[in-house]
Specification:
Elements: H1 2-32, E1 36-38, E2 41-42, H2 46-57, H3 59-76, H4 81-105, H5 109-133, H6 135-139, H7 143-182, H8 190-205, H9 208-232, E3 236-237
Antiparallel strand pairs: 1-2, 1-3
Length: 241
C-alpha cells in the first residue's frame, strides 16, 4: 500500500511538472510568435503548444493549460481586462480541447486531422460569437460597428490564425511526441503507457512518405496563412509596425 501511495505521489508530481512545462512553453510561444499584426489583432502560436499537450495527455490538460496561460497573460501583459482574458481562454480552450477530445477516441493520423479541422471551425465560430457579444464591451465600440467588421476582419483573421496553428501542430506533433517518449516524460500513468504503446505501433506502420506528406501539408498551410495575413488582410510583421 505504501508503494502504491508513493507511486501515485510520483505520478502526481510528474503531471504537475509536465503541465507547468507546457504552460511555460505556451506563454513563451505567445511572445516568440507574435510576429504578425492585423489591425489591432495579433497572431500567436500558443494554441499549437497547448494542443500538443492535449494530444499527448488528454483534453483536461489542454483545458487547464489554456486557463493558466490566459490568466498569466491577463496578469502580465493583458490590456483588455477581464473580458479579454475570458475571450483568450475560451478561444484556446475551444481549439485545443476540441482536437484533444476527438483524438482521445481516435488515436491515429485521421483522428488528429479530423480533430484539427473541427478545432479550426469551433474556434472560428466561437470567436465570431464572442466578438459580437463581448468585443463591444471592452472596446466601447457600438455592436453594429463590430458586426460590420466580422466578415472583413474578425472572421478571416480567426480562421487564418486557427488554420496556421493547426498546420503547426501537424508539422511538429510527431517529432515532439517522439522526443518526450524517448525521455520517458509522457509515461506518467498506465493509461498513458497504453496510449504511447498504441501510438508507437501506429508509428511503426506509418511510412516515411506519409510523415513527409503530413509535414509538407503543414508547411503549405503555414505559408498560405502567412500570405493571407500579409497580402489579403493587410497585416504587418511586428518589427515593421
Amino acid at each position: 500500500m505504501q508503494k502504491n501511495r508513493s507511486l501515485h505521489t510520483t505520478q502526481s508530481i510528474k503531471r504537475l511538472v509536465i503541465a507547468g512545462l507546457f504552460c511555460a512553453l505556451a506563454y513563451a510561444a505567445m511572445f516568440v510568435t507574435s510576429w504578425i499584426k492585423v489591425a489591432f489583432l495579433t497572431f500567436d502560436a500558443k494554441d499549437t503548444v497547448i494542443t500538443i499537450a492535449g494530444l499527448l495527455f488528454g483534453p483536461v490538460y489542454s483545458l487547464l493549460i489554456s486557463l493558466v496561460v490566459s490568466l498569466i497573460e491577463f496578469i502580465t501583459v493583458g490590456d483588455t481586462g477581464f473580458w479579454g482574458f475570458l475571450m483568450n481562454f475560451l478561444s484556446s480552450a475551444a481549439f485545443s480541447s476540441t482536437c484533444a477530445l476527438i483524438y482521445k477516441y481516435k488515436k491515429n493520423i485521421k483522428g488528429a486531422i479530423v480533430g484539427l479541422v473541427v478545432s479550426v471551425v469551433s474556434m472560428t465560430a466561437m470567436m465570431v460569437l464572442l466578438n459580437l457579444l463581448i468585443t463591444p464591451i471592452y472596446t466601447g465600440m457600438p455592436a453594429a460597428d463590430i458586426a460590420t467588421m466580422i466578415p472583413t476582419l474578425f472572421l478571416p483573421f480567426n480562421l487564418t490564425k486557427a488554420t496556421m496553428n493547426a498546420a503547426l501542430v501537424l508539422m511538429i506533433y510527431k517529432p515532439v511526441s517522439r522526443v518526450l517518449k524517448a525521455a520517458k516524460i509522457t509515461d506518467v500513468s498506465d493509461g498513458m503507457r497504453e496510449t504511447a504503446k498504441k501510438e508507437m505501433e501506429s508509428n511503426q506502420k506509418s511510412s516515411l512518405l506519409t510523415n513527409l506528406l503530413i509535414i509538407g501539408i503543414g508547411v503549405f498551410f503555414v505559408a498560405l496563412s502567412t500570405v493571407v495575413f500579409i497580402v489579403v488582410l493587410g497585416g504587418k510583421f511586428s518589427f515593421m509596425a
